[in-house]
Amino acid sequence: MRVFRFIPAAVACLFATVVFAQNYPARPVTLIVPWPPGGSTDIAMRSISVIAEKHLGQRIVIENRPGVTGTMGAAHLAQNARPDGFTISQMPITVFRLPHMMKAAFDPMNDFTWIIHLTGYTFGVVVRSESPWKSWGELVAHAKANPGKVTYATPGNGSSLHITMEDLALREGLSWVQVPFKGYAEGAAALLGGHVDVQSDSTGWAEQVNAGRLRLLVPWGAQRTRRWPQVPTLKDLGYPIVSNSPFGIAGPKGMDPAAVKVLHDAFRKALEDPEFQNTLEKFDQEAYYLNSADYAALAKNTFEEERAAVKRLKLNM
Fold first, then answer.
1. How far is CA 227 from CA 14, 17, 233, in A?
2. What is the pLDDT of residue 12?
3. Per-residue DSSP letter, 111
4. Domain limits of the chain?
5. What is the pTM (predicted TM-score) of this model?
6. Strand ranges inside 120-167, DSSP E
């Protein structure tokens, strides 16, 4: 008798899952972008969402939640969002790093459902065109001769931009001063206004570099950039560093696998769409697709790698 009772229950569960998959999403999905409007992440996530919503059959509403170095989306998923598939977030690498630096409002290993991995950034260091530093080596030499005098803007304490600049300072035996902002736009305004000497950020600076208002000293990718191939990378200059801060999309823990698949499939189609590929090219980014299971494995590895990096750079708070 127990067997006969179990079979209808299993069938009912399967039927409910099928119905859920067929009906999801029944209303718009909110995608949190944990950065201010106008930066490269915001533009990229808006671009991919416009394409993905065609495959979802529902709108994707962008909600900007800047602050705490891009981790406000993760905090909201962990503390407030229901696992119904209607609230998801872009997940920057700081989600794996900040819990090693301070008390965080989330646990990266237990609080999220990993949906799809998308891409990474092209980072670099820029200065004003009238700056006396024509190369990375000239900036380093000046910083060594003037400890604690060079200021650099980043999109937040604990960001990959902050971490890598401090890694470089440790390797070169110099000290400079981070000035953290909520995102690219604020840092760019400070640089152009002469309030900081240097900006370390993603390719939101591309337009200013092309217009001749800023000078790119060094990009941090594995290869030279397509648009500025004359500028050597950190690897070209002898540093064993590639920093590109890859990211994807996640939801709260406990999401229905059917909803995860629907979201994954919609965003994968959008990732492969030529229109979104053009957006990536605009910011010198490349697609870095991982499915849900592989993204979860990457999350685990990244969490441990960031633990080691924070310890090595003595950034624990």
1. 51, 48, 13
2. 47
3. S
4. 21-120+246-312, 123-219
5. 0.83
6. 123-128, 151-154
